[in-house]
Design goal:
Structural class: alpha+beta
Shape: globular
Largest sheet: 4 strands, antiparallel
Radius of gyration: 16 Å
Strand order of the largest sheet: 1-4-2-3
């Protein structure tokens, strides 16, 4: 549970798989604390709460409007120097090669819910500057229209959620998808 709170569901599950000896791509996990450092500055967390409270979306089009408003709030914020430094150091630590930057929300991949496909992954990230933008994209995706609609459906509070981020090397693939190990309906 502590890893899930600190790094998000995806990172925690991959860490557990690695601990059990399963083949897992090498990578680095950026903690949710970086997300909190970013959202605390300039009152962003309060602005997100206001947007959600005022707009109270109930349709997908309203959720898209909320997503746009929150993305706009993210984009006008300056990234704190410490956050920039940590992301650049992580990218360099991965070998200065193309990476997949993957979201890892604290509320995803639980026994009750699966946010599969609702948060961002940015592929072929080829520089530290691109890594910063990719991390911001992952953080913003905590409030994607799909995630907002899904959270409302299940009564989840996205404001109490957080976002960790994974950096992993790119892998050439011939297929992609999501695997459910239980019936997603029942």
């Amino acid at each position: 549970l502590a890893d899930r709170v600190r790094y998000g569901g995806k990172a925690a599950h991959l860490g557990e798989a690695l601990r059990l000896g399963c083949p897992v791509l090498p990578g680095l996990a950026l903690s949710t604390e970086l997300y909190h450092q970013f959202t605390r500055q300039g009152g962003l967390q309060g602005e997100i709460a206001s947007i959600l409270n005022i707009m109270q979306p109930t349709t997908i089009i309203q959720c898209q409007a909320v997503e746009w408003a929150i993305r706009s709030a993210f984009e006008v914020r300056q990234v704190p120097e410490l956050v920039l430094q940590v992301i650049a150091e992580a990218w360099h630590a991965m070998g200065d090669r193309p990476l997949a930057i993957r979201s890892s929300a604290t509320n995803e991949d639980s026994p009750q819910q699966s946010f599969v496909g609702q948060h961002a992954t940015v592929l072929d990230v080829a520089s530290a500057d691109e890594a910063v933008q990719a991390v911001l994209t992952c953080w913003q995706s905590l409030f994607s229209a799909k995630a907002i609609a899904y959270a409302q459906r299940f009564g989840l509070d996205l404001l109490s959620s957080s976002m960790g981020v994974l950096l992993q090397p790119m892998v050439a693939s011939s297929a992609q998808g999501a695997l459910f190990t239980v019936d997603p309906v029942t």
